[in-house]
Design a protein that fits this description.
By secondary structure, the protein is α+β, with helices and mostly antiparallel strands. The protein has 8 helices and 18 strands. The strands form 4 sheets. An 8-stranded mixed beta sheet has the order 8-7-10-5-4-13-16-15, with no helix packed on it. A 4-stranded mixed beta sheet has the order 1-11-18-14, with no helix packed on it. Strands 3-2-6-9 form a 4-stranded antiparallel beta sheet, with no helix packed on it.
């Protein structure tokens, strides 16, 4: 299984069948151990009863004291068992949700990464190539003598484009299975060529289609409104003649589909009298690379980017347009919060035990409300701001915990415990200053317990036995 599907490594995930079987096996072993302990305790009590069987008075005193202590121990064990029953499944549930949320975040990061760094349509600037005869000198041996020979060789040279007027219209299809988006490109470009050479009049105009396309149609190269025909399939070099001092114009047009970016690459050439107009009929959209457009115009239906270079400009990086996705910030916050949820629950429930009379029914209801609020926050946080979502959920949590108290003072104590043990700790894990917020929550909890028990400023009725 790929790591992105597994989630956070090392955490239990109940959606994995192998781990679920392992947890069931461990739970069965623990249950058998508990049964053996109960049987051992029963045997111990039977042996003590048998040893005191001859002395009836000592037997009654022993069993009276044992019954009292056992009753108190049983009440405590009931609450402890309930807390364990709530915390252990709660931990497995939260760890599973943490894994799922981590996987969802990583899937979003992968999608955004593919949109800005994945497949792309890259248009390479055309080149005007010619063959020149250049002299060169080499030495050879003739009849035991070293002779210097002057000769000529054919060298490939390139003519700089005298002007480029490019217009590209972009539209986007996002409902494509397995792809973040696909661009549709309508490309039209006019290239001006001037022959400044005195002894060369034969050239090749090389205008390759964009790299990375999945569909290319209506590809045409025209010279002075006359279409040029390809001599070989896949060969985008077109021979032409141009006398010294003359100029001509080539037009390149096509429609293409490809990756969710479109960029133009100068291919190491100097750009002169260059103008590129990119019209994107979708949003949000932004310019790619670090070449800032000279003009950005936004209207209701499209965004226009214009690059203009007047004379001999060298552009190393490709530049163009990409779909602007909002950066994914604060990743990992919810997985961390979910992993710490059982500890937050123990913090809150301990404050309630130390502040209010708590019955088993109230503990179970409070635990259900707490985990339900955290589960709601987990999924609501995908739609709106997490702090705002927890603020709204906290109001519901405070309104429900007000019913824990049988009197107005007890209800207010439950509100204070909920703020110090649940609302502030969860909020602290959602904001950047987590340490400061958690410290304030801990200080508030300690002050409240001191006021409640040491100074008796806020007296509450004791729990009835």
């Amino acid at each position: 299984m790929p790591p992105s599907v597994q989630g956070v490594p090392g955490l239990p995930d109940l959606t994995h069948p192998v781990e679920l079987v392992q947890f069931g096996t461990q739970a069965l072993q623990g249950s058998l151990l508990l049964v053996f302990l109960v049987i051992a305790l029963g045997i111990a009590i039977a042996l003590m009863s048998f040893s005191l069987g001859r002395n009836k008075s000592e037997q009654l005193i022993f069993f009276g004291q044992w019954a009292l202590h056992y009753s108190q121990l049983l009440r405590g064990l009931q609450h402890l068992a309930l807390i364990l029953v709530l915390v252990v499944p709660g931990f497995f549930l939260c760890s599973t949700l943490s894994n799922r949320y981590h996987h969802w975040e990583q899937a979003k990061v992968t999608q955004v990464t593919e949109s800005v760094a994945g497949d792309k349509l890259e248009q390479i600037a055309p080149q005007v190539r010619y063959i020149a005869q250049e002299p060169y000198t080499y030495t050879t041996q003739v009849k035991d003598k070293i002779v210097q020979v002057n000769s000529t060789q054919k060298v490939t040279r390139f003519l700089t484009l005298a002007g480029s007027q490019i217009q590209v219209k972009l539209n986007q299809s996002v409902d494509v299975k397995g792809r973040s988006a696909i661009y549709g490109v309508d490309y039209t470009a006019d290239y001006k060529v001037v022959n400044k050479l005195t002894d060369i009049n034969s050239f090749f105009f090389e205008a390759p289609p964009p790299n990375g396309y999945s569909l290319l149609e209506s590809y045409k190269v025209e010279r002075d409104k006359t279409r040029l025909q390809q001599t070989n399939p896949g060969d985008y070099g077109f021979p032409f003649r141009l006398q010294s001092g003359e100029e001509t114009t080539f037009r390149v047009t096509y429609r293409a589909q490809g990756g969710p970016r479109w960029v133009y690459s100068a291919g190491g050439q100097l750009l002169s009298n260059f103008r590129l107009l990119a019209i994107a009929s979708f949003s949000p959209v932004d310019f790619a690379s670090g070449v800032i457009p000279n003009e950005i115009k936004v209207d209701d239906s499209s965004t226009q980017f214009t690059w203009k270079f007047e004379d001999n400009v060298s552009v190393k990086n490709p530049f163009g347009v990409f779909t602007n996705s909002q950066p994914i910030a604060k990743t990992g916050i919810f997985p961390r919060l979910l992993l710490l949820t059982p500890a937050l629950f123990l913090w809150w429930i301990l404050l309630l035990y130390l502040s209010l009379p708590m019955s088993l029914k109230n503990v179970a209801i409070a635990a259900g409300i707490f985990f339900a609020c955290l589960l709601t926050l987990t999924y609501l946080g995908r739609l709106i701001n997490a702090q705002l979502a927890w603020g709204m959920i906290s109001l519901i949590l405070l309104a429900l915990t007000y019913g824990l108290g049988s009197t107005r003072q007890a209800s207010l104590a439950a509100i204070v415990c909920t703020i110090a043990g649940a609302v502030l700790p969860v909020f602290g894990l959602l904001v950047p200053f987590s340490g400061l917020t958690l410290s304030l929550a801990g200080l508030l909890s300690a002050v409240w317990l001191a006021v409640r028990h040491w100074y008796s400023w806020y007296g509450l009725p004791s729990e009835k036995p």
